[in-house]
Write a structure and sequence with these properties.
single chain, 7 helices, globular, Rossmann fold, Pimeloyl-ACP methyl ester carboxylesterase, 6-stranded parallel sheet
Amino acid sequence: MDLRARLADYAWVVRAQLRPGRVDWSGGPGCPVLLVPGIWETWHVLRDLGDALHRAGHPVHVLPGLGTGSGDLRTSAALLRDRLVELDLHHVVVVAHSRGGLVAKLALPAVADRIDGVVALATPFAGSRYATWFPARSVRRLSPRDPQIRALAADAGQHGRIVALRPRVDPHVPPTGPLAGAVEVELDLEGHFRLLGDPAVHEAVVRAVEGFGERP
């Protein structure tokens, strides 16, 4: 991925974070969706995706208590669980970006009666080696060396309820091998953030949400 494409990727996420915060995604006949952003992201980066899911008939919810997603994974997973209980949601599909997919996977066993599955975009399920020496502790927690990441990567018990969408080239999440038992789809895209605004990705996510559990 060249420098120009990287800069465009970063520019996209900065603009996305600055969008106004009010939306109304309530109602709809489809299954409910809970959006979970990645590290240093607010839910606003998933706004285009939320719009697409709501147009497809799904009530869409966010996780405001997560803030910028820089806390401990267990704390974030507890916030996800509490949000589902607060809203009394069942048969939910979590749509998550990057670190958000780890939060959803960690939460799955505790909320198995509420979540049907997870659609994860560009998630480092085995960690990212680029995080190992990063100055911020919140990012270093995503290193493959982190004990929590290692334990989570070794636990394949929930993979059957995960659809993992990955860009062909991701400057933040290098390839780490297959996610055994999950449905994995490679997107013909480059970048880590801009894919969240791509209409083709929106279509893929809507299909995954609506056909969850089906194997191609």
